[in-house]
Amino acid sequence: MRFSLTTWNINSVRLRIDLVAKFLKSARPDVLCLQEIKCIDDAFPLKHFKRLGYEHIALNGQKGYHGVAVVSKLPFEKTDIRTFCDKIDSRHISVEFGAAAQLSKPLVLHNFYVPAGGDIPDPALNPKFEHKLQFLDEMKACEPLHPRGDDRHILVGDLNVAPHENDVWSHKQLLKVVSHTPIECEKLLAVQAHGEWSDIARDRIPLSEKVYTWWSYRAADWTAGDRGRRLDHIWVSRALKDCVSDFQILREARGWERPSDHVPVTATLEV
pTM (2 decimals)? Predict the structure, then answer.
């Protein structure tokens, strides 16, 4: 069975619902994982998604900030929400697909929005950066999050870390910039290693090649210097590594009218 999913930090789902609709009508993934929906559950545009054929929706929203959602053509068996750092800040939701989605074995999908971490890469001076580092530590320590043996798990989201040298436009210039500091990169890669997760992008694209999913709003022309970072990730468990048949980053979405600063990232698996 072909199973396609997209992760996208939408930076306000209500503000950009027309862009989401444009994407879904074109790409038609089975599942769309959104981050930074920036609305409470009751304000989420459910009717828009249902009209587009995405009738199954799992929400963990928050007024004005953060928030994650999974919208799907396929029904869920169950959903779960985990909190990190003792904060109720809507940064995780997971769903499980099974027999109702015509899968012979369960498939668990985690959707994350890792804290951005502010501007100062010093936890003693910046509580936001301290929060980010603690969040990454707790992701590693959360054993139910990590697949074992033949578990079929997928982890996606805006993980807010560009862990490899060519995940940023300039490794040397960004070493002291939050999202690419050595401590963040080490901690995210430790999360990945602990769960034996496979990073689809870097499984398919050599580490020597530049790969980006985010371009700052601060640049007057985001294409001019192409100063991007790869902050949005799709990881799969060892049992799914050989099932990946396609991977796409929709770079052109950054040039749409009133875009998010992130673009959709899509993977297709044969499950």
Answer: 0.97
